[in-house]
Amino acid sequence: MISQVFTAEGGRDAGLVTGAEGTTVPYYASPSELNAYWQSVFPNKPIPSAILDHFSAPSGKEMNYQEKEHYWSLYSDRLTEGDAKIFHNWAHRIASEKLLYPETVFIAGSKINLYIDRAAALHNAYLRRDIAYSIPMSTKNFADIAAMFAPVSLSMARDMWSTLSSCEHPREVAGEQKACTTSLESMHEFSALALGTSNLRALSTSLDVPEEGISSSSQRYEVAEVRAITAKAAVNTVTCHSMNFPVALFYCHAVNPTRIYEVTLQREDVAAVPEPRTPAMVRALAVCHVNTSGFDPTLKYWVKLGLKPGEASVCHFLTRGDVLWAPTSAT
Predict the structure, then answer these.
(1) Per-residue 3-state assignment (H helix, E strand, C coil) for the chain
(2) CB 310: neighbour CB atoms within 10 A?
(3) What gap in Å lies between CA 220 and CA 228, rounded to an integer?
(4) Per residue of the chain (331 residues), what is the pLDDT tens digit?
(5) How far apart (Å, rounded) are the C-alpha atoms in residues 116 and 316?
(6) What values do phi and psi take at 27, rounded to 5?
(7) CA 184 to chain centre
(8) Predicted TM-score of the model (pTM)
(9) Considering Cα of 259, then 213, then 191, then 309, what sign does the dihedral take?
(10) What number of other Cβ atoms are within 10 A of residue 271's Cβ?
(11) How big is the chain by its Cα radius of gyration, in Å?
(12) Cβ–Cβ < 8 Å for 283, 212
């Protein structure tokens, strides 16, 4: 049972939590602990970059300059449902015409405007397993959670509130399985439970994809090569999206069945002055949800294609911070 939480004053010291009989232990998992766990469940298998990026100690209470103007207060800054930007609402509604693609574009020679979202909180540290399990990640516990990272800027508080609200949001796709995880162990355990096997492979997109994402509104990309990561027959997978939070928190969900591709894209007119966030060559993982009959029919994606749910797959690229889990037998 956690009785009190302290925040590191800076540098690379982890925060401490007061436990039984007044003893103090770090509440962040150390790189050696994380590596030991990984080797115990995935011996001799490489650690995906999207997981490895979180194998670092936190930087204490460092904030961007603009965030120092106002700190969140329980008494003066009450947050409500209106302050939450629900992850599903944002990704699948507001920007769906940009971030989502039909599977038919993943053939050599296709040309697209490429949009890959930025990676959220890519370098935030994992909580220790015991600490993560002792803290219910809920908006009801928001004040206690915010106290762990005090002082919290108002913008950070809103991000935290939005993330917790997304974790609590009802499933939007029929049959979807979801969970928010704050430790490496819980992310692995949810994926194993959802997929019905502990014999898994974890994947992340190429380092070609910038942390800030890609947005090619006017310059197009040509698909140079498509490599199937999973078998041609659709398989079950879990995708874990990194979220805005002071520690590593992943929104993991399974909307199955899926097909997974590694897509290599070449920017057209390489000699021209490129837009920002448009590298000349990109290799990125793409997830295609095959059964879309339970998807929201009001998505702009369907309007754009002139189709209805169930008449086409829904595909999206993974960000630098996302982790994909698949049964080893399927890859």
Answers:
(1) CCCEECCCCCCCCCCEEECHHHCEEECECCHHHHHHHHHHHCCCCCCCHHHHCCCCCCCCCCCCHHHHHCECCCCCCCCCHHHCCCHHHHHHHHCHHHHCECHHHCCCCCEECCEECCCCCCCCCCECHHHHHHCCCCHHHHHHHHHHCCCCEHHHHHHHHHHHHHHHCCCCCCCCEEEEECCHHHHHHHHHHHHCCCCEEEECCCCCCCCCCEECCCCCEEEEEEEECCCCCCECCEEEEECCCCCCCEEEEECCCEEEEEEEEEECCCCCCCCCCCCCEEEEEEEEECCCCCCCCCCHHHHHHCCCCCCCCEEEECCCCCEEEEEHHHC
(2) 13
(3) 23
(4) 232 332 322 333 334 444 444 444 467 888 899 999 999 999 989 999 999 998 865 544 433 434 444 444 544 455 555 555 544 444 444 455 688 999 999 999 999 999 998 898 888 889 988 888 888 888 888 888 888 887 888 888 888 888 898 888 876 677 889 999 999 999 999 999 999 999 999 999 988 899 999 988 888 999 999 999 987 789 999 999 999 898 899 999 999 999 999 999 999 976 666 677 788 999 999 999 999 998 888 888 898 899 999 999 999 999 999 999 999 998 8
(5) 8
(6) -95, 0
(7) 13
(8) 0.83
(9) negative
(10) 6
(11) 20
(12) no
Tokens found for residue 54: 């979180």
Residue 82 CA to residue 106 CA, distance in Å, equals 38
Phi-psi region of 82 (alpha: psi -120 to 50; beta: other; left: phi over 0): alpha
Residue 123 neighbours by CB distance under 10 Å? 15
Q: Residue with structure tokens 């990125």? A: 284
pLDDT for 55:
84
Neighbours of 134 (CB within 10 A): 14
Compute the distance between CA of residue 161 and CA of residue 158 in angstroms, rounded to an integer.
5
